[in-house]
């Protein structure tokens, strides 16, 4: 029987870590939907570094392959910004909907993390979590991740990038980032990774 867990929230709130751990704990399949947008954003960067044409971006989304999601450079700051720019294009979102919905209905259960999972992709999800943390804490986490790969990264730039992306995600017309009315809020600002994971598992256990 399918069992769907929808996890949404702003950048670097801990969604990815929690989703992976929840999937491992319950034996669910996991889809990081941000990777879909990042992969389209990366392809769009090859066309233009300043503006993204809806028709081209839609075509790139329709042509997405499993291999595209394996690229090792999808987690860069540049690709993150491109992802959030193509993510405002309605045709791009529509092109990616069916794949996500089908993934969510798999036997054995599924956990999907993103921005619109509990509101648009899986409005009937069995469990919805909205994972958040203060802007400083999130920027600090992202800074540590990015500076481990590139020591020239500056905290202030990471902070500004995270803020710009959150604003774009929350203010767009189509599928904006917002907590579903029936989502459980988990604020990870002062939680350890283990505490955040246990908080999520407790909510799911209560529902199973
Ligand atoms: O890892 P992080 O939370 O920083 O970002 P991500 O989940 O990889 O998502 C990258 C970008 O893709 C977001 O800033 C959104 O603009 C977009 N996205 C979206 O619009 N809808 C989703 N379900 C997932 C990501």
Question: How would you characterize this protein structure?
Answer:
The protein has nine helices and five strands; from the N terminus they run βαβααααβαβααβα. The chain is of the alpha/beta class and 208 residues long. It has one domain: Rossmann fold. A five-stranded parallel beta sheet has the order 2-3-1-4-5, sandwiched between helices. α4 runs parallel beside α8. The longest helix has 17 residues. The model has no long low-confidence stretch (mean pLDDT 96). It binds cytidine-5'-diphosphate.
Quick overview:
The chain has helices at 15-26, 34-47, 54-62, 77-86, 90-104, 117-121, 135-149, 155-171, 193-207, and strands at 4-8, 29-32, 110-114, 127-132, 184-187. With 208 residues, the protein is α/β, with parallel strands linked by helices.
How would you describe this structure in keywords?
single chain, 208 residues, alpha/beta, Rossmann fold, 5-stranded parallel beta sheet, binds cytidine-5'-diphosphate
